Amino acid sequence: MIGDIKIVVMSKMKHESRQKEVPAFRAFYERLGYKVLELKETELFEGMGDTIHHFGKNLLFGGYGHRSDKSAYKELSSKLDVNIVPLELIDERFYHLDTCFLPIDDETVLLYPKAFTERDLAILKEKYICN
Questions:
Q1: What domain of life does the UniProt record list for this protein's source (predicted)?
Q2: Which of 10, 73, 109, 127 would be a feasible disulfide site paired with 84, CB 3.0-4.6 Å?
């Protein structure tokens, strides 16, 4: 939500079987009065599985690599005017960010380190979480 406006960004699913879900979700959110946004410059973006809101810091963490493109976060940041920390997922068992990453409070996240690059772990440790 931005102000009083309810916003949803539609997914662009990788697998054909999941692509069939998107029109149903669009209709659902339209009935509820949401403003529906589309990512035009991005091929793959699986939405909530790869995008996690950190309420205390008012930012989004965005997983990419297996089912979402990194480019989705630049476009999403622009459309929503929000800071996004892109995190590359390198272990195919963790194909969505929500399978290996969970903010606990303003200074702590629960994560599986081997799902991420050393570079991203260093960024998280330096800028966003404490030991």
A1: Bacteria
A2: 73
